[in-house]
């Protein structure tokens, strides 16, 4: 299937701006099912190519692009959802910004990269639910941490008798948030248990020493059931634990380091897994101590352990068998 034409779509809450690349045509539609149907009619009237040779490209805008992606998939259109930063960095030097211009730039980018872009497949219903619940849980955990900190500071400094309502309200909020977080975690566990594939993946991942329940669940969600990434090295780059060289010619000889363009949540979870593994996994502990004894950098060694854990997670999923601790059988 050859892509011969691209359609750039700039999405906002109420409307979508659509640009047909080769014909250089622009049209605005409502961001709902009625608007999507009108968009298809407009394309059929103005495009010279059948739908199998068309590709829609849109910037990832969270919940605003959810309905149009489901519609395009149901109508058998090819489409891609691109990170905003990827499109922005491809533009070069630009001046000014509006939705019409953004749709045109998205269409141009997709046309230039059409040979390497792969058509998007919507996530399963279970993965979509888990993503939304994790997002909500993360916000609630941050709010609870904020209330706990302010309550602690105010309890130490302010007079309790004169600020009863202030302290009591925050205690109630903390208790309420804790209860709701527990409810969300129960729902997450229920979703994973009911889906055979997700349950099997979860049970395989937690067989690796040092990897906890939260990390296992986040791995499943962000890899979309290990369908989005076919190699642990690509996922390591996405998490920000893959080292990259920093050299140029003979003048720049920078240190090899990880990139800051990363999923920081997963990176922090992998960091905790690595430190836990160094402490409780005999194999990782010996490896860490050996490198430190040789004078190697501590953070560099911890990052290697992060990558080892990622490689093991992808390995147990690929083999569909639990992790085997070979240190138990060492002579």
Descriptive report:
The protein is of the alpha/beta class and 331 residues long. The chain folds into three domains: 5-112, ATPase, nucleotide binding domain (Nucleotidyltransferase, domain 5, 2-Layer Sandwich); 125-194; 216-329, no CATH class. 56% of the residues lie in helices and 13% in strands. The protein contains twelve helices and seven strands. Strands 3-2-1-4-5 form a five-stranded mixed β-sheet. Strand 4, helix 2 (66-74) and strand 5 (78-82) form a beta-alpha-beta unit. Helix 5 (125-157) packs antiparallel against helix 6 (164-194), helix 5 packs across helix 8 and helix 9 packs across helix 12 (298-319). The longest helix has 33 residues, at 125-157.
Short description:
This protein is an alpha/beta fold and 331 residues long. The protein is built from twelve helices and seven strands.
By DSSP (H or I, 4+ residues per run), the number of helices equals: 12
> How many domains comprise the coordinates?
3
Helix content: 55-70%
The parts where pLDDT drops under 50 for at least 5 residues are none
Radius of gyration: 25 Å
Largest sheet: 5 strands, mixed
The average pLDDT score comes to 92
Tell me the structural class. Answer: alpha/beta
Strand content: 5-15%
Strand order of the largest sheet: 3-2-1-4-5
Distance between the termini: 56 Å
Per the principal axes of the C-alpha atoms, what is the gross shape? globular
- Kindly state the number of beta strands: 7
Order of helices and strands: EEEHEHEHHHHHHHEEHHH
């Amino acid at each position: 299937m050859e892509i011969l034409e691209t359609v750039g779509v700039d999405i906002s809450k109420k409307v979508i701006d659509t640009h047909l690349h080769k014909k250089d045509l622009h049209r605005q539609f409502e961001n709902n099912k009625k608007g999507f149907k009108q968009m298809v009619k407009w394309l059929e009237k103005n495009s010279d190519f059948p739908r199998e040779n068309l590709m829609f490209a849109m910037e990832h805008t969270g919940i605003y692009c959810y309905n149009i992606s489901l519609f395009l998939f149901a109508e058998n259109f090819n489409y891609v959802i691109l990170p905003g930063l990827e499109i922005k960095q491809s533009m070069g030097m630009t001046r000014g910004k509006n939705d019409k211009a953004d749709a045109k730039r998205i269409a141009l980018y997709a046309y230039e990269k059409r040979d390497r872009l792969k058509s998007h497949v919507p996530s399963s219903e279970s993965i979509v639910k888990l993503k939304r619940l994790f997002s909500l849980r993360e916000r609630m955990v941050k709010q609870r941490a904020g209330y706990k900190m302010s309550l602690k500071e105010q309890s130490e400094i302010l007079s309790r008798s004169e600020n009863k309502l202030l302290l009591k309200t925050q205690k109630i909020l903390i208790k309420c948030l804790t209860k709701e977080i527990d409810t969300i975690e129960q729902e997450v566990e229920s979703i994973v248990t009911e889906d055979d594939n997700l349950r099997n993946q979860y049970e395989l991942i937690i067989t690796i020493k040092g990897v906890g329940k939260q990390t296992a669940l986040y791995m499943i969600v962000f890899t979309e059931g290990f369908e989005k990434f076919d190699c642990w090295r690509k996922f390591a780059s996405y998490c920000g634990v893959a080292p990259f060289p920093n050299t140029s010619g003979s003048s720049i000889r920078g240190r090899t380091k990880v990139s800051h363009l990363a999923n920081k949540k997963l990176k922090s979870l992998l960091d905790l897994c690595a430190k836990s593994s160094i402490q409780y996994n005999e194999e990782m502990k010996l490896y860490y101590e050996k490198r430190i004894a040789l004078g190697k950098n501590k953070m560099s060694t911890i990052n290697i352990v992060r990558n080892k854990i990622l490689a093991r997670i992808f390995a147990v999923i690929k083999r569909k068998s639990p992790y085997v601790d070979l240190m138990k059988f060492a002579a």
